[in-house]
Amino acid sequence: RWVFVITPTHRRFTQRLDLVRLGNTLGHVDNVYWVLVEDSARRSHKVDRWLNASMVQHWAHLWRPTRGRWQVRGAQQRNHGIAQLRQMINEETDQALRKAYQDGVVYFADDDNAYDVALFDQIRQVRSLGAWPVGLCGGHFVQRCIVDPGTGKIVDYIAWNARNRKFPIDMAGFGAHVRHFLSPDSPEDVPMFNVSSMSGQLESDFIDGFGIPLAEIEPLGDNCTKVNVWHVRTAVENFTRYSFDELFDV
Ligand code: UGA
Ligand code: MN
């Protein structure tokens, strides 16, 4: 099964470091389609070069500047990725490939997190909407769902602000079957990130758009006990001697 990995990315000192690391991971995984969306008004040659140099076989290089509310980082880029993915799959002329794409899974991978290649096999198990633990996330060593061993259903969540979020799931902690994005006849009915979501509610509001109750979300990662993705914040020193433009492929 195909995994469509949608990644927003923005210009900063650690951008190449983070993209190299993510590209190295994705390069080890078969049937990954990487949709990289720059937070930028134009396509940057550097990112294009990095993508070409990466081991990732299937990718799309997109760009979309953040307009208006910038607080919801990456939201407009992910939405652009969804819209383009929808178009790309619908316009695929190779019928066998289109059929295969139509059974894929969509995953939103921030460019700075760390991913075990095992995560992608886990993502491939998603039938409709799946969730799994995320390490070092929102003040928790592990953010995860709690599964009732009797029913095998998710009954609760250990997560930041779990009481005030309908779906207390991090961006890195869920995957959705691509049909949710393809089947609606009207593009307005496609689940999208709401750029006016309240702070901290971006994922919860988005997941709400699938119309699937919490108990029907598939707990993956050995019933939400195995961590295969971690939040990372790449630390940088305070560089005073270099301006950004002096840096060439660092
Ligand atoms: C957390 C969540 O894990 C994100 O998925 C969520 O988008 C974010 O909070 C938020 O809603 O603010 P966090 O580590 O705090 O992530 O944020 P970043 O890693 O800085 O940004 C998340 C993604 O958005 C990254 O892929 C980053 O490259 C991208 N981004 C960030 C942009 O495209 N533009 C920006 O101006 C900043
Ligand atoms: Mn991050």
UniProtKB/TrEMBL annotation:
One GO cellular component term noted in the UniProt record for this chain: Golgi membrane
Entry binding sites for Mn(2+): 112
Compartment annotation: Membrane
GO molecular function, a single term: galactosylgalactosylxylosylprotein 3-beta-glucuronosyltransferase activity
Main location: membrane
Record family assignment: Belongs to the glycosyltransferase 43 family.
Active site annotation, chain numbering: 203 (proton donor/acceptor)
Superkingdom to which the source organism belongs: Eukaryota
Name of the protein: Galactosylgalactosylxylosylprotein 3-beta-glucuronosyltransferase
Names of required cofactors: Mn(2+)
Keyword vocabulary terms for this entry: Glycoprotein, Manganese, Membrane, Metal-binding, Signal-anchor, Transferase, Transmembrane, Transmembrane helix
Position of the signal peptide: none
